[in-house]
Amino acid sequence: MIKINAPINKEELKKLRAGDSILISGIIYTARDAAHQRMAESLKKKERLPFDVQNQLIYYMGPSPSKPGQIIGSAGPTTASRMDTYTPDLLDLGLGGMIGKGKRSSEVIHSIIKNASVYFAATGGAGALLSKCILSSDIIAYEDLGTEAIRKLEVKDLPVVVAIDFMGNHLYGNALPGTNCTSL
User: Cβ(98)–Cβ(53) under 8 Å?
Assistant: First the structure.
């Protein structure tokens, strides 16, 4: 296991390779579809984003409601490809990486390479366990979006795997987006 701290230094990202098991500690942000759409609208209007994305990690996650005494409810990853339309612009602004599940488009992979970023995969279906790695959770923007609001999380040893490294090596074989196992 490799331990990294967030926000992440791009030079540290360049040491990571597809398949590496990682434990992330520090500050990360959550954003899903609706939050990404709002951030894209802000960028078009030349407005500031709710947080400086430089060297940050965005976790594609919308938690379930927390029970009494919990910091956050289940906190599993959502399908990353739903954010593919918005990702290259954020990477161009210096986003260090993303955490989600599933394949990314060829445009996102090219943008990861261009910007020396990383895509991490978290285990789908393990949201209850992943929530135990979250020390604090604060909504910082778009509260009206409910679970899709942007949250600032403090995490300790959040387990992920490098799914796509800064050179474009990835865990999804040579499959092109949109293919399936029977067509390979």
Answer: no
**2 Cα distance to chain centroid:** 18
- Mean pLDDT, the chain, rounded, equals 91
Q: Which domains does the chain have, with CATH numbers?
A: 2-164 (3.20.130.10)
Q: Which of 32, 36, 101, 170 is catalytic?
A: 36
Q: For 18-45, b where at least 16 C-beta lie within 10 A, e where not — what string?
A: bebebbbbbbbbbbbbbbbbbbeeebee
| pLDDT at residue 50 tops 90 | yes
Q: What phi and psi, each to the nearest 5 degrees, are found at residue 177?
A: -55, 135
Return the bridge partners of 79, or none.
101
Whether the CB-CB separation of 71 and 134 falls below 8 Å is answered with yes
For residue 22, report the phi and psi dihedrals to the nearest 5 degrees. -125, 145
Give the integer Cα–Cα distance in Å for 1 and 159. Answer: 9
Does pTM top 0.85 for this prediction? yes
- Amino acid identity of residue 126, one-letter, is A
Coil, helix or strand at residue 136: strand
Active site residue 36: yes
